[in-house]
Each structure stands twice: as structure tokens, then as C-alpha cells.
From TrEMBL, chain A:
Pfam families: Proton_antipo_M (PF00361)
InterPro entries documented for this protein: NADH_Q_OxRdtase_chainM/4, NADH_UbQ_OxRdtase, ND/Mrp_TM
Segments crossing the lipid bilayer: 6-28, 40-59, 90-109, 121-139, 145-162, 174-194, 214-230, 251-273, 285-304, 311-331, 337-359, 379-403, 423-446, 467-486
Alphabetical keyword list: Membrane, Transmembrane, Transmembrane helix
Source organism (scientific name): Sinosporangium album
Protein name: NADH-quinone oxidoreductase subunit M
Membrane topology (UniProt): Multi-pass membrane protein
Automatic annotation (TrEMBL), chain B:
Gene (name only): nuoN
Topology of this chain in the membrane: Multi-pass membrane protein
Subunit structure as annotated in this protein's UniProt entry: NDH-1 is composed of 14 different subunits. Subunits NuoA, H, J, K, L, M, N constitute the membrane sector of the complex.
Source species, domain of life: Bacteria
Keywords (A to Z) from UniProt: Cell membrane, Membrane, NAD, Quinone, Translocase, Transmembrane, Transmembrane helix, Transport
Cellular localisation: Cell membrane; Endomembrane system; Membrane
Name of the protein in question: NADH-quinone oxidoreductase subunit N
Domain spans labelled NADH:quinone oxidoreductase/Mrp antiporter transmembrane: 165-458
Length: 505, 521
């Protein structure tokens, strides 16, 4: 491998943030026609993808546990806040997922019929991208928090500008609920800072919580965990999610489920578990318990839903339960499963929301009873894609959704030393029940919507899948297949980093 | 009214020197004019404005024409900028200037040090924006212009003298100099019942708070035998009164209560909304930024900076006050439908955030100053846009503003998001982080949690207002907008606030440097 010039590396990682930020800022001053606006959005999100791809290509996979492409500049000495960015095996896949999903959202928007207030929508989406990417790149506790907060206002506007009839209430609920989570998170981060005197995530993870007494670690883990759990969302803190998803426009739902939720789980992998190992050990059984309750609750709630988008939203609660269960085991297998599940859920649920949006677009409703059946007959391509996404989501072996769930349960079979094995075996059993229920509700949904005789509603003249939709969805379908058939592609990146922070125990 | 204030302003320095002279070795104290140059420049400008008002031609019997009104405004503006330049010169010169000193025991009544410069700078920059807003307010001619600027400048003199005051008498005089002109400014909107009511309310509240502060100060003086802040702690230690503890506790509580009125802290907050709404918008901005900063400067000087005094007594009280202030301010703000009333209650809540770090102890003063500086920039901006858009007005008038006046709407949205403490309003976020950091570091976890919940409550009303700006209005509301206001100066004021807040967002270290109070003693 040719050595990368020293200067080129920071330019790459900084441009990942600067391109969308500049794009959003320029949009304020530009007066463009709808077509030009759509092209502009495509160009900016595409340009953001370029440095991300370049970073992924120049990433040294043999040293995946190490922080690469690092930038470390002082920003606010008064707060000890440094502009410290970097990627390692844990964050790189999420950064790539974020840039890809945002780009695909712009691809989807480029063909969308809705044109009113497109400029506001696009600048909100670009700002949202800055926040999401920054969260995954930040290596400073406060910088992480700053980016964690950046997403709130743009997401609020994405829901409030283009959302459904109840959008205002849903947007407000989203922002208030998640802000409450993030201020609690801030208190936990500051507690770590006040005890250790540093905000550097790398240094903190390296010292494995040595400077932190056990009691402090537990308090910090609980506060940080609560903050992250709101975003994840963990049962019973999930109640903002179904409303936000139901009201959000398609691209909002895709990014919310595909990326925003991952910011919560990423926080566990980046901060809570490596920095606070003793706290993690003490709280892990609780985390696991809430996770499996979430799995079962999410599945049962899905069985009771009539609205397609609401059902997918609840299915996210269940899937994120598996991710949290993976973390709770504190084993390399479990944590890898969680990180894998993160990416898989981002791809699959992103696709599902795209498809649900397309269905709503054509039928004018996402209510399963009103939709009736027979989509496979009327819209064969859309129906088959929906079937594919549902089957991937329920965890069919060979597709990406399978590995995250299976490995999380496998991790629970043999949790880390010091954790009660019988308890985790119970978690495993309950989680296994959850997978069955998950299969049940997806199959019930498919039988109601795609199969059977056609319902009374006829789809609008839009017809079956269009080109722009296909170009937004095919990359997701391919990646779901790739990671399903060749899980090592992803596990090999995350595993070294996971081993590093878990092994000193 | 104006003449008495004039004498007051011009002579308080001299009279103070005279009262202090018995302690001095010589009958006449040397005055370091370099130290008092900024307030002196303001005082001269105030006199100049009053004279110009009298001698420039009147267009009718009672009011000036637009050009004269403009000339007076620019004179006042030039005076404030000159005072600012002098302040910058003092800052560049470095070191500590002091004057009105007594030799035995050595103490000075007027000291220009870090805290003086920080509060002075804040006051003068805010003063510039308030004068720009005033130019818009005064453009329709029913307010007497000369008196307005004279009173405004007097209030500014008080506000920059106060942080330099290092004895109790000087402190009270400066505080009164901030307060007295504001009643008159409120009442200057004549023939408006609401303004008169607001002026009377403000007057009564202020008189009561002054009386309370004075009582506390007299007790402190009685127990310690000195007026100089730096000697009070020593004086109390060798107090001739055997049971001084109770007296001093009462004194400290009374001083806190007096200042709590000034900063509108709960339970002394009830005047805020009526007065802000009744007064014209520039006066409301003055009250919420300059007058409040002066109140906090006094509080920090007495409690925290000079000599930590009875901190075991006042720290828990201040913590509880802070918690109550932020909670009640936020809850009241949630129910408002009028822009200025909402800003009034929100600034009560923000007072709570400023007080919160003092609930950790004297060492929290730095974070309080940091929050105050951030708050001043964002809040002033919000008031300036409110002035620009609808002279306050009901929240319904702001619906769909972005489609009618995109620049004003974006500026207001930015300030509101700043006040809520969310990115892209990074200034507000860093301000909140600084306070949270102080609270967590100082181990006052319960107050941090209360503040966390309050941040969420605050977001509710800030974000609903901000979202309304971007919501298309159901019917045109142009007709309800304020009539011809001279907008250009107000727009400049908004621009100044935006620039400052953006700088604070990108390079907040400027403000954190201001909060370094360790050099004080």
C-alpha cells in the first residue's frame, strides 16, 4: 500500500463534515429552480460520499483497532474541548452507512413529486448529515455531544416541514424527548470529565476506567446509558419513535431509523462500555433485561399495528433490543453482533421505510386494512422488494438481518466473566422467542398486503417501481445480500477494535 | 427628574471623594482620570445630548424633526463608542487601575480590573445595540428624544461604574444610577396606560429592593466597621459585637434579596412580564441585559469575588433560588402568547441558569460570568429582532415570517435556538455546558438535574416560536405589523448581535477568557 501524504489525511476527514455543512449554508443564499435544486442536493451528498469512500479505501484494515485519519486541534481550551476526529473499525462502517443512506435519500428526492419547500428540506437534510457524520467521527466527549445535538433541530424540521397530519406534535415530542435524553447524557459525560480531567475518548478508553472508582462508573454508566437509550431507543423509553416515524416523510424515516438510532448504540460501543468497564459490568444485566423486554414488546406491538410505517417503527424497537442485548453480554461475539446488527438494521429498515413510503405514495395510505392484499399481483416489483426487505428484517439466514440476531443470542449463551450465566440464558430464550414473534408479524403483514386477492384500493397511475426509486434501493438490496452471504466482510473490520477494548478485562 | 439625575450623575464621584477624605492623609485625594475615563466620557456625552436637545431647532413645540432626532442618536452612539474605545485602551494597557483610595488601611473604592473590563465591555456593546434600537423607537416622535438618550446614558454610566465599585456606598450609588433612569425611560412612552403602570410597578419594586439592600449593607457596615469590600471579612473577624453571626447572616440574606429583585429571581420576579411589556422594546432589552448584568455584577462582587463571605450560609440559598427561578420562569414562559412577555419570562429562567453556578460556591462566579456574557448577546439579539419585526407583538404575528422577511426570521430563529442551547446555536450550547460542568464538578448534582429538565421545558417554547417562523401563515398578517418604524438602525443592531453571537459560537474561547476570575481578589 502506498503511504498517504501526511496532509491529505486530515483534509479527507475534515471535508467529510465541511462539504455538507457548506452545502447547507450555500443553499440559504441560492435561489434555484426545482430541477437545479434536486441536482444540487444530489451533487453535495455525492461529493460527501467521495471523501468517505476515499477514507474507506485508504483505511489500513490490518490496523483496524487503531484510530486513523486522525485530526486533533484545540478548539475551546476553556472547556477542554478539542476538535478531535478519527475513524477506526467501529466507526468506519457507520460513517459509510450514513454517507450512503443520505446520498440515496437525495437520489430518492430527485424523483419525488413533492416540490414545495424543497430548499428548506434539503438544507435540513444536509445539516442532519453533518450531525450524524460528526457523531461517528468525534473522539472528544464534548465534541461527540455537540454533534449528537446537531441532529435535533434539522430532524425536527424534516418532520415538521414534510410530515403527515400530526407532524407538529410528533416533531415536538421527538425533539423534547431526545433533548431530555441528551442533557442526561451530558451530565454523565461531564461526570467522567470531572473525575478524570480529560475529554479524550481514546485516552479514556485506553485507561479502561482506571481513574474512576466503581461507584462513579456505575452512576456515569447509568446516566450516559439513559441518554443513549432514549435515542436507541430502549424499551420503555421508545415512545417518541412510533409517532415520529409515522409522521415523518420517507427520507426522514429512512435517516431516523437508518442512522439516528445508531447514534445511541454507537455511544455504547464508543464511550459507555470502553470508558466505564466496571459500570458496564454492574449494569449489563439490567441492560440485557430491558433489551429482551424490548424485543418481545416490539414484536407484540407490531402484531397489533394497522399502519405499515408504525409497524416498521415498532420493529425497530425489537431490532435495537437485539443490538442492546449484544452489548449487554460484554463479550467480543456479542459486541460484534451489536455492531453488525446496527449496520444490518440501517440497511434493511432504511429499505423498508423507502418501500413503505412508495406504498403510501401509490395508495395514499399505509393502513394495512385499507390497502387490502394482492400487491404482488398489481405492483409485482414493489411487492417483491417489500417481501425481500421483510424477509431480511425477520432474520432469514443468508441475508444481513440474520447475523446480528444470531450472534447476539450466541453471545448471551456465554456472557462475559462475572455476569450471571443463567440470567443470560433466560435472556437468550426470551430473545429467541422474540425472533419467532418477529417472523410472525412480518409474515402476517406480508399475507395481508402482498398476497391474497386485491383490495378495494387501486394504486395511483404512478405504476410500479420507477427508475429513481430503483437506483435508490438497489444498492441497499445488494449490500443486504453481500453482508448476509459474507458477514466476515464487516466482522473483520469491527472485531480488532472490539477485541482491543474488551480484552484487558 | 432630569436635572436631579444630572447633578447626581455629575457629582457623585466628587461627593464620594469628599466623604472618604477623613480617612485620607491629605484632604484632597488624587483622582486617576485614566481609570474613570469611560464613565466620564459617557457623562460628558449625556450632558452634551441634553444641551443639544435644548438648543437644536424644534420642528414643533414639543418635538424635534427627524434629522435632529437622528443627530442626537448619533451623538449618544458616538459617546458610547468613545467610552468603549477608552475601555479597550484600559484593557490593552493591562494591569489594574485604581482610584479613590484611602491609605490606612489601604483600600480603593474604584478599581478597574478584569471583572470591571468584562462587565464594562458587555454593557457598552449592549448599549450600542440598545441605542440603535432606540433610534427606531424614537422615529415616530412622540417620545422626547433628548431626555431619552440622557437617561439611557445615565443608566449606562451606572452599569459600568458598578463592577468597578469596591465599597458598599459606591455599589449602592451605582446600582441606583442604573435603576432610576429606567423608571423614567419606561414612563417616557407617555399617554400609554400600560407604560405608566409598568413605570410605577418598576419604581415600587426597585425602591423596595433598594431599601432591602441598604438595610443589609448597613448591617454589614455595623458588624464589620468598614465599607470597603476587601476589608469586610477582616473586619468581621475582629468584630466588637460578640453575637455578630446572626446579624451578618441576616445582612447577607438581605443583600441577596435586594439583588434578586434586580435580576428578577424568584420569588422577586413577578414584576418582570408586566414591566417588559409595558415599557418600549429597547427599554425591555436594557432591563433584561444591562440592568440584569449590573445586578449580577453587584451580587458577584459582594458574594463571590471580593472576599468569600459566609459562603456556607448563602450557597445553599442561592442554589435553591436558582432552581426556583429557572423552573418558574420556564413554566410561566410556556403559557405566553406575547413575544415580549415570553422573552421576559425566558429571561427570568435564564437568570436562574446564571445563578446556578453560584450555587456551587464562590468559585462558580466564573461560569456565571461566562453564561451572562453569552446570554447578553443572544437575548439582546432576540429583542432587537422583536423590535424590528413587530415592536414586540403577539406570537401570531411571527407566523410565516420567513416568507416575508427571510433575514429577520433566520436571525430570530438563530437567537431562539441559541437561547434554547441547541446547535446550530452553539453559543447557547457552550454556555449551558459551562454551567453544567461547574455544577457536576462542584458536586451539586440535584441542581444539574433540575437544570437539565428546565432545558427541555425551555426548548418547548423556544422551538414552537422558531417553528412558527417557518410555518406558512393562514392569512396575510401584514396589516397587523407595526407602522413606519425607522428600520435601518434596528437592522444594524440585529446585525451586530448576529455577528457577536456567531463569533461566540465559533470561537467561544473569547468568552471563557472573560470568565477567568482567578486574578481577582
Amino acid at each position: 500500500m502506498t503511504p498517504v501524504p501526511a496532509l491529505a489525511v486530515p483534509v479527507l476527514i475534515v471535508s467529510v463534515l465541511i462539504v455538507p455543512a457548506l452545502g447547507a449554508a450555500l443553499l440559504l443564499g441560492l435561489r434555484l429552480q426545482v430541477r437545479a435544486l434536486k441536482m444540487y442536493g444530489l451533487a453535495v451528498s455525492g461529493l460527501t460520499l467521495v471523501p468517505v469512500v476515499a477514507m474507506a479505501v485508504t483505511f489500513d484494515y490490518r490496523r483496524a483497532a487503531q484510530i486513523q485519519h486522525e485530526v486533533d486541534l484545540p478548539w475551546i481550551p476553556g472547556l477542554d474541548l478539542r476538535f478531535h476526529l478519527g475513524v477506526d473499525g467501529i466507526s468506519l462502517p457507520l460513517v459509510a452507512l450514513t454517507a450512503l443512506l443520505t446520498f440515496l435519500c437525495f437520489v430518492y428526492l430527485s424523483g419525488d413529486r413533492r416540490t414545495e419547500r424543497l430548499r428548506a428540506m434539503m438544507s435540513a437534510l444536509l445539516l442532519l448529515e453533518v450531525g450524524m457524520l460528526g457523531t461517528f467521527l468525534a473522539l472528544d466527549l464534548l465534541l461527540f455531544f455537540v454533534f449528537f445535538e446537531v441532529v435535533l433541530i434539522p430532524m425536527y424540521f424534516v418532520i415538521a416541514i414534510w410530515g403527515g397530519p400530526g407532524r407538529r406534535a410528533a416533531a415536538l415530542k421527538f425533539i423534547l424527548y431526545t433533548l431530555l435524553g441528551s442533557v442526561v447524557l451530558l451530565l454523565g459525560l461531564l461526570l467522567i470529565w470531572s473525575q478524570t480531567g480529560t475529554l479524550d475518548i481514546v485516552a479514556l478508553a485506553h485507561s479502561q476506567g482506571a481513574a474512576l472508582p466503581r461507584a462513579v462508573q456505575i452512576v456515569a454508566f447509568v446516566t450516559i446509558g439513559l441518554g443513549l437509550a432514549v435515542k436507541t431507543p430502549m424499551w420503555p423509553l421508545h415512545t417518541w419513535l412510533p409517532d415520529a416515524h409515522t409522521e415523518a416523510p420517507t427520507v426522514g424515516s429512512v435517516l431516523l431509523a437508518g442512522v439516528l438510532l445508531k447514534m445511541g448504540t454507537y455511544g455504547f460501543a464508543r464511550i459507555a462500555i470502553p470508558v466505564l468497564p466496571d459500570g458496564a459490568h454492574a449494569v449489563a444485566p439490567w441492560l440485557g433485561a430491558f433489551a429482551v423486554v424490548g424485543i418481545v414488546y416490539g414484536a407484540l406491538a407490531c402484531l397489533a399495528q394497522r399502519d405499515l410505517k408504525r409497524m416498521i417503527a415498532y420493529s425497530s424497537v425489537g431490532h435495537m433490543g437485539f443490538v442492546l442485548l449484544g452489548f449487554a453480554t460484554l463479550t467480543p461475539v456479542g459486541v460484534n453482533a451489536a455492531l453488525f446488527g446496527n449496520i444490518a438494521h440501517g440497511l434493511i429498515t432504511g429499505l423498508l421505510f423507502f418501500l413503505a413510503g412508495a406504498v403510501k405514495d401509490r395508495y395514499g395510505t399505509a393502513d394495512m386494512a385499507e390497502l387490502g392484499g394482492g400487491m404482488l399481483g398489481r405492483l409485482p416489483y414493489l411487492g417483491s422488494l417489500l417481501t425481500f426487505a421483510c424477509i431480511a428484517s425477520l432474520g432469514l439466514p443468508g441475508l444481513a438481518g440474520f447475523w446480528g440476531e444470531m450472534l447476539a443470542l450466541f453471545g448471551a449463551f456465554e456472557p462475559a466473566e462475572g455476569l450471571s450465566r443463567p440470567l443470560f440464558l433466560v435472556f437468550m430464550a426470551v430473545g429467541g422467542l422474540g425472533t419467532v414473534l418477529t417472523a410472525a408479524y412480518f409474515l402476517v403483514m406480508l399475507s395481508r398486503v402482498t398476497h391474497g386477492p386485491p383490495g378495494p384500493l387501486t394504486p395511483s397511475a404512478v405504476g410500479d417501481v420507477r427508475t429513481f426509486e430503483l437506483s435508490a434501493w438497489v444498492p441497499l438490496v445488494l449490500l443486504i445480500l453481500v453482508f448476509g452471504l459474507w458477514p466476515k466482510a464487516l466482522l473483520a473490520i469491527t472485531d480488532p477494535a472490539v477485541q482491543t477494548f474488551l480484552e484487558a478485562r | 427628574m432630569t436635572t436631579t439625575s444630572a447633578t447626581h450623575a455629575a457629582s457623585h464621584v466628587a461627593s464620594h471623594a469628599a466623604t472618604a477624605s477623613p480617612h485620607a492623609a491629605t484632604a484632597v485625594q488624587a483622582i486617576d482620570y485614566a481609570a474613570i475615563a469611560p464613565p466620564l466620557a459617557l457623562a460628558l456625552t449625556a450632558c452634551a445630548v441634553l444641551l443639544l436637545d435644548a438648543f437644536l431647532p424644534h420642528s414643533s413645540r414639543s418635538s424635534h424633526g427627524p434629522s435632529v432626532r437622528g443627530a442626537l442618536g448619533f451623538t449618544a452612539l458616538a459617546g458610547v463608542i468613545a467610552a468603549g474605545a477608552l475601555l479597550v485602551a484600559q484593557a490593552v494597557h493591562g494591569g489594574t487601575l485604581s482610584t479613590f483610595c484611602v491609605p490606612e488601611p489601604a483600600a480603593c473604592s474604584y478599581v478597574v480590573d478584569h471583572i470591571t473590563l468584562v462587565f464594562g465591555g458587555l454593557t457598552l456593546v449592549a448599549g450600542v445595540v440598545v441605542i440603535l434600537m432606540s433610534m427606531g423607537q424614537l422615529s415616530d416622535g412622540d417620545i422626547p428624544v433628548g431626555e431619552w438618550y440622557f437617561l439611557l446614558l445615565c443608566a449606562l454610566i451606572g452599569a459600568i461604574t458598578l463592577p468597578a465599585s469596591r465599597d458598599l456606598v459606591m455599589l449602592v450609588v451605582a446600582l441606583e444610577l442604573v435603576s432610576l433612569p429606567v423608571f423614567a425611560l419606561t414612563a417616557l412612552r407617555r399617554y400609554d396606560g400600560r407604560a405608566s403602570e409598568a413605570a410605577v410597578k418598576l419604581f415600587l419594586v426597585s425602591v423596595v429592593s433598594t431599601a432591602i439592600t441598604l438595610f443589609g449593607i448597613s448591617l454589614l457596615y455595623g458588624a464589620s466597621g468598614t465599607l470597603h469590600l476587601s476589608h469586610i471579612a477582616g473586619g468581621l473577624a475582629k468584630s466588637p459585637i460578640p453575637e455578630a453571626h446572626g446579624v451578618v447572616t441576616a445582612a447577607v440574606m438581605l443583600v441577596i434579596a435586594g439583588f434578586a429583585f434586580k435580576v428578577a429571581a424568584v420569588p422577586f420576579h413577578s414584576w418582570a412580564a408586566d414591566v417588559y411589556q409595558g415599557a418600549s422594546v429597547p427599554v425591555a432589552a436594557l432591563l433584561s441585559v444591562i440592568s440584569k448584568a449590573a445586578g449580577f455584577a453587584g451580587l458577584i462582587l459582594v458574594l463571590a469575588v471580593t472576599r468569600p463571605l459566609y459562603s456556607e450560609v448563602w450557597v445553599p440559598v442561592v442554589a435553591v433560588l436558582a432552581a426556583l427561578t429557572m423552573t418558574i420562569g420556564n413554566l410561566l414562559a410556556m403559557r405566553q402568547r406575547h413575544a415580549v412577555r415570553l422573552l421576559a419570562w425566558s429571561s427570568v429562567a435564564q437568570s436562574g441558569y446564571i445563578l446556578a453556578p453560584l450555587g456551587v460556591g464562590p468559585e462558580g462566579a466564573g461560569a456565571a460570568v461566562v453564561y451572562l456574557v453569552f446570554y447578553a448577546a443572544m437575548n439582546l439579539g432576540a429583542f432587537a429582532v422583536a423590535m424590528l419585526v413587530a415592536r414586540g407583538g403577539s406570537l401570531a404575528d411571527y407566523r410565516g415570517l420567513v416568507f416575508r422577511r427571510p433575514a429577520a426570521a433566520l436571525a430570530l430563529a438563530f437567537f431562539l435556538v441559541c437561547l434554547a442551547g441547541l446547535p446550530p446555536g452553539l453559543a447557547g450550547l457552550f454556555a449551558k455546558v459551562a454551567v453544567f460542568r461547574e455544577l457536576v464538578d462542584g458536586g451539586v448534582g440535584w441542581l444539574a438535574v433540575v437544570m437539565a429538565v428546565n432545558t427541555v421545558i425551555g426548548l418547548y417554547y423556544y422551538v414552537t416560536w422558531a417553528a412558527a417562523l417557518f410555518t406558512p401563515a393562514p392569512a396575510p398578517v401584514e396589516a397587523r405589523e407595526a407602522p413606519a418604524v425607522r428600520l435601518a438602525p434596528v437592522a444594524v443592531g440585529v446585525a451586530v448581535s448576529v455577528v457577536i453571537t456567531v463569533v461566540f459560537s465559533v470561537a467561544p474561547q473569547v468568552v471563557f477568557d472573560a470568565g477567568l476570575l482567578s486574578a481577582l481578589g
